[in-house]
Amino acid sequence: MLGGTYLSLALGPTAPLPAPPALAQNLESVKVTHNDEGRSGFQLTFRAGRAGPSDFLDDPIASHPLLRPFNRVILTAVVGPMPHVLMDGVITNHQFAPGEAPGSTTFTVTGEDVSVMMDLKEEIREHPAQPEPVIAALLTARYARYGLVPMVLPPATMEMPLPTERTPVQHATDLGFINQMAQRFGHVFYIDPGPLPGMNVAYWGPPIRAGVPQRALSVGMGPATNVASVNVQYNALSATTVQGTVQDRTLGVELPVVTFAPLRSPLSLLPAHLADVPNVKVKQLTESQGLSVLQAYAKAQGITDASADGVVTVSGELDTARYGAVLKPRALVGLRGAGFTHDGLYYVKSVTHTLSAGRYTQSFQLTREGTGSLTPVVIP
Questions:
Q1: Which of 26, 162, 210, 305 is deepest in the core (most CB within 10 A)?
Q2: Cβ distance 31 to 353 under 8 Å?
């Protein structure tokens, strides 16, 4: 417990149950990292060591059946009145570090979110007459036993694969194929745990840059400050446009493919794709053979959209006690106190939660496509 913050741990093969006292009392620290790309992960560190004759054969923590690989782990934090599922994952790694001094032996359990179970078996499978969003939803639905509920948003430009012309074929794991399809459109795929323990939202689509922003991150504002440290970087080489041509397989003619700016909802007043003209990077469209003009344009626009995410990056560490909430990744948050150039709304790209006795911090990374605030105020 930390100033009204509680952490609960549940473990088990399929339906996790609250951790027994032998594990809960020896839990030393917890680390959870959420990203909007790739798998999220967790790490549990336990105090270990043999306490008496009954532990002659093996360390009771290191040999505990609930900590075996591929057991499921659910971590829930209660900050104030609201519970937040920090992680629903699967154990994939053990680290045992014996120590000479009493109490210095540790046993560390590492794992990843439940999407790791989608990445175990490579398959060759046809998906006739199914566009990418349909394939993503159907593949995700195969893992309903892990509480996965598909949430799929189609891209702005998409082509229906007619069986007489082509059939999408999978040569990868389910997770690998879903990520391949997401990259074609500059989309992301991730598992968002919750809203209740045992439930997970499997999101496939563009980064979510809409909705009600979270409580603002405040810097340099005296008693209202809730950020322990913050660093802002502007990468002038990130913004990219694409140009090229494609021999449309349907029309049989060569057509131009050009992008000018990202199509995602703007968060800044001066996007780099406009503010840095004419010095914006131009990338030639490659590997377009066999594509239709719609497929080629979707690929090109995905490159431009993804490039905008790395223009402005804000990293820092949040004091959870002062903030009074759990910062959610893959959503919007306001920043204030950093000046007009860097204040305003940002997309939360990643959050790392670190919990131990009497301490709970959240390290974060925010991104957006340029500088200047679009809003006069943010939610305090």
A1: 305
A2: yes
pLDDT given at position 147: 95
* Predicted pLDDT at 52: 58
Q: What is the pLDDT of residues 280-315, one digit of tens each?
A: 999 999 877 778 888 899 999 999 999 999 899 999
pLDDT reported for residue 1: 45
Structure tokens at 154: 């189609």
The two most distant CA atoms of the chain are separated, in Å, by 81
Q: Which domains does the chain have, with CATH numbers?
A: 5-114 (2.40.10.10), 214-233+314-373 (2.40.30)
Please compute Rg for the chain using Cα positions: 23
**CA distances for 157 relative to 37, 186, 211, 305, 319, angstroms:** 21, 12, 23, 13, 42
pLDDT tens track for 25-66: 999 999 999 988 878 999 999 998 766 555 556 788 988 999
- Does residue 87 contact residue 75 with C-beta atoms inside 8 Å? yes
Identify whether the C-beta of residue 320 lies closer than 8 Å to the C-beta of residue 360.
yes
